[in-house]
Amino acid sequence: MKFLFDSDTWQEIYGSIRKNKGRTVITIIGVLWGIFLLVVLLGAARGMENNFKKIFGTFATNSVFVWTQSTDTPFKGYQKGRRFRLTFNDIEVLKKQYSNEIKLLAPRNQTSNLVVKDFKSGNFNVSGDYPVLDKIQKKNLIFGRFLNTNDILRKSKVCVIAEDIYIQLFDKNVDPIGQYIKINNINYKVVGVYKPSNNINFDGDAVYIPFTTFQIVYNRGNKIDWMMITANEGVDIEQMEQDILLSLKTLHKVHPDDKRAFGSVNLGKEIGKITGFLTGMQFLTWFVGIATLIAGVFAIGNILLITVKERTKEIGIRRALGATPKEIKQQIVLESVFLTTVAGMLGIIFGALVLFLMDVTLGQGPDATLINPTVNIPIILIAFVTLVVLGTLIGLIPAHMATVIKPIEALREE
Q1: d(C-alpha 179, C-alpha 166), whole Å
Q2: 27: alpha, beta or left, given left = phi > 0 and alpha = psi -120 to 50?
């Protein structure tokens, strides 16, 4: 290892690089670009993944939403275009029929109403719900609590409101808990205020009241507007969606092939598409980064081969003066390792700076698209070590070419 600390060795490497400044800079840029791309693309992919997790963070992602529309196929005496509603009977049948598949099932009703507090008012969504909704879509409460079982059993006139509704209807710094608001000219006691998340939100700024209270006040009987269903872990959510829709078609005498009668959104399926896209992007990132790295390393090998050719006479003189083939080989390999190390470090530094700029410009605020775009340090170290190893291996080729030159032939080289 003495040659590593030999000043003559480093002077010769410096002299070689200095003589070929243009080629050296181009070579370093080629390798630098490869690891730079790898760092930036991996960081961007991580930022997209973090944004995706934020969007669906509060939702049970293996969920299906189902509602009714109108039929597009005549069936069993019913004409095309028939409208119908989901009922509590549907809920009971699904719970029994899919007891092993369904984890949570939340029937829901919604309408829009004028909400009044003293002299302030506004039109907002009013939603009749069960406490289970908080398990499917977690509410970030800033005051009080969410609906509970007692509210359902007692058909209580209580409500949970969004933060924006609280701001519009209440004076600043007023504690809303225990205060009353009017919905459809009926007083409701505020028991909670929640802050809507910046992610997926089907309800907007809503007022939540007990489902049983909603049924009485709005005379819904056993009718429901739509339902949210969450599957147990390991259940094929797409198959469960198809099975549930088929069961509902049977219950409501709808043709099995009717595509319009029921509307549904399979959150698990949509998330699967996004996950597949992210996986594909990561694969493409690794492929492009590694391919660019290899191309850069081969460029170093080509530069060194040219350098060896140009230094044939010099190598011959050194051999004639007693330099061993091992010493010649070590110098060429060390030059290759030096170039790849410098290029790799610069690529990592520039990549980190770009990720920092991405975080500052695209990763802040409610509309952030790349949240915390970073790359794990072990991945960076593996990429860097791989680059140095490749640089070492590629340096062996010109090193071997240098050692096979016979001194007498090298001295004859013009």
Answers
A1: 11
A2: alpha
Q: Quote the CA–CA distance of 358 and 103 in Å, as a whole number.
A: 40
* pTM: predicted TM-score of the whole model, two decimal places: 0.65
Question: According to the model, what pLDDT value does residue 311 have?
Answer: 62
DSSP string, 112-180: EEEEEETTEEEEEEEEEE-TTHHHHB--EEEEE----HHHHHHT--EEEEEHHHHHHHS-TT---TT-E
> Is residue 203 classed exposed, middle or buried when 0-12, 13-18 and 19+ CB atoms within 10 A define those classes?
middle
Using alpha carbons only, what angle is made at residue 341 by residues 338 and 345, rounded to the nearest 5 degrees?
A: 145
Secondary structure class of 97 (helix, strand, coil): helix
Measure the CA–CA gap between 408 and 320, rounded to whole angstroms: 8
Find tokens 């860097």 and name the residue: 384
Q: What are phi and psi of 123, to 5 degrees?
A: -90, 125
Counted residue by residue, the chain has a size of 414
Give the model confidence (pLDDT) of 311-363 as tens digits: 666 666 666 666 666 666 677 777 777 777 888 888 889 989 998 898 888 77
- At residue 50, the pLDDT reads 79
How far apart are the C-alpha atoms of 35 and 8, rounded to whole Å? 31
Domain ranges of the chain: 2-56+272-412, 63-267
SS3 110: strand
Which residue type occupies 402? A
Q: Residue 333 is encoded by which pair of tokens?
A: 């390999």
- 8 Å CB contact between 201 and 187: no
Cβ-proximal residues to 345 (8 Å cutoff; 6+ apart), any chain: 384
Model confidence pLDDT, tens digit, residues 231-278: 888 888 889 999 999 999 999 999 999 989 999 988 777 777 777 777
Classify 249 in phi/psi space as left (phi over 0), alpha (psi -120 to 50) or beta: alpha
| Residue 250, C-beta contacts closer than 8 angstroms, at least 6 positions apart | 256
